[in-house]
Amino acid sequence: MRCDDIERWISKSMDNELSVKEVGQMRQHLEHCAPCRQSFEDSRDLRAWFVPGAAVAVPAGFAQRVVAEAFAGKASVPTFTPLKGGGASADSAMPGVDRFTVRLAAMAAALLAVLGLALYMQRSTQSRDLHADRNSLEDTLKGLEQLNQREFPARSQETPPEGTQR
After folding, report:
1. What residue segments make up the domains of the chain, in order of their start?
2. How many degrees, rounded to 5, is the angle at CA 146 between CA 141 and CA 151?
3. Distance (Å, rounded) from C-alpha 64 to C-alpha 126?
4. pLDDT, tens digit, 9 for 90 and up, residues 72-96
């Protein structure tokens, strides 16, 4: 199984579109391929942020009305109506507003991109690294100890207080 195949299958697995055989093949690959496993976990974590919305009730006869209007040639997109007063444009009505808005939006997008990159680079340990349901208590405690040693190397050299375990 190639990593390219797994990348496509990850999306399908999130939508429950894989056969039992394909799921087995994907799991076997994920056990041995850390980059694909990380990609799968990232996709799963991302999917957890999205909650399905409530079902929208479509009015009776809606599809028939849309088809009838489409075949009758009715426009479904509003058409442009020129401003009153001899064809004055929006730029002359409120000079600079559109350009200012576009520039402000572009600067905000650039700032968000830089902020996102900075947060990504400063990324601390993710919660998915410590799951009690995946590891035994002993493995979780060892993971916490390793994390503490990486984050606070000076503290890890100290002896623990009496009555506590390390």
Report:
1. 1-47
2. 120
3. 50
4. 876 666 555 555 554 444 444 555 5
The Cα-based distances of 142 to 21, 38, 128, 130 in angstroms read 35, 21, 15, 10
Residue 45 backbone dihedrals phi, psi, to 5 degrees: -65, -40
Tokens 């939508």 — which residue?
15
| Contacts for 52-60: CB closer than 8 Å, 24+ residues apart | none
Q: Which amino acid is at 165?
A: Q
Tokens of 141: 């405690």
Whether 142 has a pLDDT exceeding 50, the answer reads yes
Query: Distance between CA 39 and CA 121 in Å, rounded?
Result: 18
Please tell me the distance from the alpha carbon of residue 43 to that of residue 23, in angstroms, as a whole number. 16
Residue type, 79: T
CB 76 within 8 A of CB 70: yes
The rounded mean pLDDT for the chain is 76
Cβ neighbours, 10 Å, residue 97: 11
**Dihedral sign computed on CA atoms, order 55, 56, 61, 62:** negative
What one-letter code names the amino acid at 2? R
Sign of the torsion formed by the C-alpha atoms of 24, 29, 35 and 36? negative
Average pLDDT rounded to a whole number, residues 139-154:
81
